[in-house]
Amino acid sequence: MKAWVLEAPNTIPRLRSDLEPPRPGPGEVLVKVEAAGVCYRDFLNYRGLMPRTVYPTVMGHEFAGTVAEVGEGVEDLVSGDRVTGLPYRTCGACAYCLSGRENLCRNRRQLGEEVAGTWAEYTVASRRDLVKVPRAVSPADASICGCVLGMLLHALRDVAQAKTGERVLVTGAGGGVGVHAVVLAKYLGCRVIASTRSGWKAERLRELGADHVVVAEGSRIVDEVKSITGGEGVGLAVECVGAPTLQHSLRSVSWGGRIVLVGNITVSNAEIPLGYMILRENAIMGAVGSNKRSLRDALALIEAGLIKPVVERHRLEEAENLLQLLERGETFGKHVLMTTR
User: What is the 3-state secondary structure (H, E, C) of the chain?
Assistant: First the structure.
């Protein structure tokens, strides 16, 4: 089979065509991959910034496809069933898994890092981490539900508890995560301020429903947000960038406002002005990944036509080029590798 293999940290991945398809073990499913998302996490992994990666590894953690073979004990899936799944292997036995918070599984193993990933014609997944894909949802759209859409739905709805009518700032709004944070915040009834460094992305963000688009960097983000909100600030900031913009998000939220962290593109630490936060009663919350509930809910929203993912399709062979586009900030929305066109 064909698969993109990362041999060592900070090396260019290689498209190999000489690999044998994996075989499913007990409780596992062999999935014929139809679509595999390309994520900034994949770029960080390629750059050697994911310390738990086991080399060599097949890259990628987002996917959708059809069941090709089931392992022993799998009785509720058959060949040809359409599936997608969580971006990691869960244990199914810890307190978090048993309470439906699979994203916090203490034994989880990330696809494309600790176990073989999805930029391949076939991948193996645990049955417990898979869900069926509704007929009306395309493979490309389904492939980004386990990471981006399910993750953001969990972050906005479950963690940050975004409220209808409240103002929400989205940083890095033109990227794969940021674009869909705008889409989901609008679905939840929020008034969205989308922040981006790239002027060419502004009109597209407005077309997606952003009420205001701020094309700025640094402290200018804060100035623009305060101008839009009459000096009040936003109730919620969705921090898709992380350390480079966290200070600006903090100064853009209102008294009693909150920040939900969903990304950190530099994987570096950030300083937090504790006195400022205490005096203003601000809160910073982390949100990681999706669970099966948010994954299923994301698929249902697409099926019902309530949200429309922003996805561009590419051939499997184009993965290396997409990593370079991510590094240069030249992408808009999500990009997906298709094993068939």
Answer: CCEEEECCCCCCCEEECCCCCCCCCCCEEEEEEEEEEECHHHHHHHCCCCCCCCCCEECCCCCEEEEEEECCCCCCCCCCCEEEECCEECCCCCHHHHCCCHHHCCCCEEECCCECCCCECEEEEEHHHEEECCCCCCHHHHHCHHHHHHHHHHHHHHHCCCCCCCEEEECCCCCHHHHHHHHHHHHCCCEEEEEECCHHHHHHHHHCCCCEEEECCCHHHHHHHHHHCCCCCEEEEEECCCCCCHHHHHCCEEEEEEEEECCCCCCCCCCCCHHHHHHHCCEEEECCCCCHHHHHHHHHHHHCCCCCCCEEEEEHHHHHHHHHHHHHCCCCCEEEEECCC
Q: Would you say the CATH fold of 161-286 matches that of 3-146+290-338?
A: yes
pLDDT at position 203 over 80: yes
Which tokens go with 52?
């738990």
Q: What is the pLDDT of residue 241?
A: 96
Domain ranges of the chain: 3-146+290-338, 161-286
What count of other Cβ atoms lies within 10 Å of the Cβ of residue 145?
Answer: 31
Q: What is the mean pLDDT of residues 50-67?
A: 97
Element (H, E) at 205: helix 202-207
Q: Considering the entire predicted model, what is its pTM?
A: 0.96
pLDDT tens digits, 251-271: 999 999 999 999 999 999 999
Res 231 pLDDT > 70: yes
Q: Which fold has domain 161-286?
A: Quinone Oxidoreductase; Chain A, domain 1 (3.90.180)
Q: Is the pLDDT of residue 341 over 80?
A: no
CATH homologous superfamily for the domain 3-146+290-338: Medium-chain alcohol dehydrogenases, catalytic domain (3.90.180.10)
